[in-house]
Amino acid sequence: MVATPIGNLGDLSPRARETLAKADAVAAEDTRHTANLLRHLGVHAPLLSFHEHSGEERVRALVARLVAGERLALVSDAGTPTISDPGFELVRAALEAGVEVVAVPGPCAAIAALSIAGLPTDRFCFEGFLPARGGARRARLEALAGEERTLVFYEAPHRIGETLGDVAAAFGADRVAVVARETTKLHETLYRGTLAELTARAASDADFARGEIVLVVAGAPARAGEDAHAELTRVLEVLLGELPLKQAAHLAARLTGARDNEAYRRALELKRGGESA
Ligand code: SAM
């Protein structure tokens, strides 16, 4: 699994070059694109096509070649294969067939953006591309509004303005976010501000929506565990007066963001008259 540059050819590691040069064949998302890269590197490996629509048969054929002893390198158009790119089914099938899979790590747009965003990176949540359709996108964002980890999204340039508006509506306009544009390339830019500021910038600055974009958003402020517990108890006390226990617990979980099993356990305690915390 060979990572390739996300824009700057200087980011291809010597080990990536060596692996591509020694491979019996290089499986590539877009063979024309990868042919240019190999030409630049002076590497003459045969190319095989492997993309998102390749299907199970293609996976089986590549695994058969691996099992027969061939060394195949997999690359995507940019960055790390399998990260919002094809390849995971191939890796799984290769592992299941007893083939050794080796990472030749390198550039990844999500990690590059995180490393310069100035937002907590000790825990983060990679969400890849949001749904393209407005309704599905907003529903996904609503579900993520309480996520406390830093969130990382890939987005197409023509949708970034609309997406920022939706993120602001779902998460609150004051949340800090970063748009990393064209990282490692000539027009590399980092925009940092509240979601309201970034949404306004997207509307007023024509450059904002040009090129490739990673959106990094600060996580929701951590709610003190005690507050959450007290709120769950208060909501359950009301609902248990009106509804059967299971239904009350399920609804309370949805209303407070608690986990279903936590709400159920607390509902049982309250029903039994226990005041245990
Ligand atoms: N596998 C790749 C990786 O490791 O980052 C990601 C592939 S995904 C199909 C392409 C998306 O990655 C783009 O739409 C953009 O969101 C992001 N991306 C790729 N290169 C980028 C760059 N140089 N600057 C900012 N975002 C980039």
Strand proportion: 5-15%
The largest β sheet comes out as: 5 strands, mixed
**CATH level-1 class of the largest domain:** Alpha Beta
Bound molecules: S-adenosylmethionine
The total of helices stands at 11
Mean pLDDT: 95
Separation, N- and C-terminal Cα atoms: 49 Å
Global geometry? globular
Q: Quick one: how many beta strands?
A: 8
For this structure, what is the CATH homologous superfamily of the largest domain? Answer: Tetrapyrrole methylase, C-terminal domain
Q: Could you say which structural class the secondary elements and strand pairing correspond to?
A: alpha/beta
In CATH, the topology of the largest domain is named: Methyltransferase, Cobalt-precorrin-4 Transmethylase, Domain 2
Uncertain parts: none
Q: How are the strands of the biggest sheet laid out side by side?
A: 4-5-8-6-7
CATH architecture of the largest domain: 2-Layer Sandwich
What proportion of the residues is helical, as a percent range? Answer: 40-55%
Overall number of domains: 3
Using only C-alpha atoms, the radius of gyration works out to 24 Å
- Helices and strands, in order, run as HEHEHEHHEHEHEEHEHHH
